[in-house]
Structure formats: structure tokens, C-alpha cells
């Protein structure tokens, strides 16, 4: 199943189950990216357990985690991220949003992921609906990654066959969008992101984050998706320039963390 576990300075770090791209291994999946950001934001000591895409189902089952997603026909859809916390009797949490809530409670002294009133469930509920909304919006563009999806060559055919089975098509080629169909997806995505751009209401020096000068989980939700797009979607250079460049200029960790160390990616996980 999983490959490398990276070292950590803590004796009892959280184990973070992330989906590995093909070699060279790097994180690319949007929901695990949200968890990677949240762990770093909270300065939580963690190690990454890399899981091949073909092993996501067996890994999740081995952790005893129920599915949090279902296919259209009701079949369980086993996913990552998940975390296991050896310091809390090996507690496992298996949804990126639930993991963020868990980290918020475990590290109350660190900056808050959920602004305004961190202990208020209604505030957290608003972030949950923002998460669901952004997931549906960005999923629209996921088809653009078909040709460039970072499969592990050793398991690529198995994974492609599984995607075909889920989507009821006979061959992987049927899922590859090109020409006019592709242009329509790009154009639809541009319109939707144009609406989403209104979340960034800062002006002048008040940003660059959704809530102003400090990042929180809303930025992480968008950041997770943008990491996936930047690594897998050929149109990324075009997309990052939309809406005054906010998608490329504000949310990517390299540019967005300048002066905002909370969003840094590799503080505690030397693998990335
Ligand atoms: N609501 C879940 C969704 C997780 C999810 O959809 N994970 C995807 C990667 S972003 C996955 O594991 N896919 C495995 C597959 O397609 O086989 C969460 O936020 O953790």
C-alpha cells in the first residue's frame, strides 16, 4: 500500500494519509491538500503516509473509516485524506473538513482556522457550506486534468479502468475532453470563478486573503483546489491570470505565504 513516511521532529506526530502522484511523489489531490495546509497552519507535527491512488480504498478500510462520499448509484466511494493521531489513542479522522475541526480543537493556542467565533458551531457550519460550494464549483474544471493526471505508471491502467467503471464509459479516451468541449468547460469555469472572485472583497493593501490580512480555512479550501489545478491542468497559466490574477497571485503558497508563515507548506514536513 503506502510508500514513504517522512521523518518529523516530534516523537508522536499525526500520521497524514495523502494520495501520491506518480514518481516523483508529490501531493496533488485537492482535499488532501486542504489537510496539508491545515496541519501546517496549526503547526501540527505530522508525517505523511503516501498512498497510491489504487490503494486508497484498502487504506481507508484498514483504518476502519466509513466512507464519506458515495457514487451516484449509492456505492461507497472510499477517499483520502485521513489522519491518525497516536497521541490521542490512535484516533482516526477521515474527511478534510472534519480534520480541520479536529485540529482546531487539538491546537486551540495556534491561530484559528475558523474566524470570528472558533467555538461556535454556526460559524463552522458556514465554512462547511463554503467548502461544499467551492468543491462543486472547482469540480467542474476537473475534467481538464484527464490527459495530464499524474498517475503512477505502475497502477495507471488499473486506476483508469476504475474511473471508467464509475463513470460508465468503455475507455479512458472517452473521458478526455478536447476541442470545443474543452473550450466550453474552460469558459464555464471562468464564469464560475468570476462569481467566486467576489469572495475576495479586499481592496488595496487590505488583502490578500478572503478575510483580509490573515488566512483562515476559507483560503485553505480554495488553496487546495488551486494546488490541484496548478499541478494537473494544462490551462493553469491562463486560469491564474483570471480576475486580476487572484487565483495565481494570492492563493499559491509560494507567493501567498510571504509574510504569512502560517500557510507555509514545508515547515514540519520535509517531504514537501
Ligand atoms: N469529503 C471528502 C472528499 C475526499 C475526496 O474526494 N478525496 C479524493 C481526492 S481529492 C479521493 O480520495 N479520491 C480517490 C479516488 O478517486 O479513488 C474530504 O473532504 O475529505
TrEMBL record:
Listed InterPro entries: Glutathione-S-Trfase_C_sf, Glutathione_S-Trfase_N, GST_UstS-like_C, Thioredoxin-like_sf
SUPFAM superfamilies: GST C-terminal domain-like, Thioredoxin-like
Native species: Apiospora marii
GST N-terminal domain mapped to chain residues: 30-105
Residues annotated as domain Glutathione S-transferase UstS-like C-terminal: 152-248
The protein's name: GST N-terminal domain-containing protein
Superkingdom per UniProt: Eukaryota
Lineage: Eukaryota, Fungi, Dikarya, Ascomycota, Pezizomycotina
